[in-house]
Design goal:
Structural class: mainly alpha
Number of helices: 7
Strand order of the largest sheet: 1-2
Order of helices and strands: EHEHHHEEHHH
Strand content: 5-15%
Number of strands: 4
């Protein structure tokens, strides 16, 4: 194994996999790390294994970027540093992932929960390797939000009687809570609409 041998100034078109084990605060270095395996080649699938969550600070390597903002000129280097935190955030309440610029008043744009700034603490964790795809991430986020909303509806109907419920969602939550058959909620809702 070699470390930092091929970080800059070398063309390696046959690299298929990059393993990032070094955190960096440099966008240029991050892009050089990750782009090693993104050279185009017919039939090639690039794999980036980011053990240190560099993508949380810089986003995915193929993201569109405002290069005027990203390039550090001599004047910008002399300005005091502002740590705006990672470019990608995850809400601790709904577990949704989003870009920091989507936040308003330090609140999650998905659920509205207030997010407190936290310091990054690197620690070694044993985890299973998983592929990150944009479509899967969005689908997973929607599933989590739907689960939270469903749990909230169940909590809202827990102390009510069937006669106090007005929507199909409430009736479905009540049926789930009391282990009724799946058709019970629809039957109740349909009968109420007839009257």
């Amino acid at each position: 194994m070699n470390v930092n041998l091929f970080t800059e100034g070398v063309d390696l078109p046959n690299v298929d996999c990059v393993i990032m084990a070094r955190p960096t605060s440099s966008l240029a270095l991050y892009l050089q790390f990750s782009m090693r395996c993104l050279n185009p080649r017919e039939g090639k699938t690039a794999i980036i294994i980011d053990h240190v969550d560099n993508f949380l600070n810089f986003g995915l390597p193929n993201n569109d970027r405002d290069w005027n903002e990203a390039i550090k000129t001599r004047d910008k280097r002399k300005q005091p540093k502002q740590d705006n935190g990672p470019a990608i955030c995850q809400c601790k309440f709904c577990f949704g992932a989003f870009y920091r610029k989507e936040m308003q008043d330090s609140c999650c744009p998905l659920c509205g929960h207030r997010l407190d700034p936290e310091k990054k603490d690197y620690k070694i964790v044993n985890v299973d390797l998983q592929e990150i795809k944009e479509n899967q991430a969005i689908k997973r986020r929607k599933q989590m939000v739907n689960k939270i909303l469903e749990d909230q509806v169940i909590a809202n109907v827990a102390d009510k009687t069937p006669g106090q419920l007005t929507t199909l969602k409430e009736l479905q939550a009540y049926a789930k809570l009391h282990n009724y058959s799946s058709g019970w909620a629809w039957y109740q809702f349909k009968n109420r609409r007839k009257h």
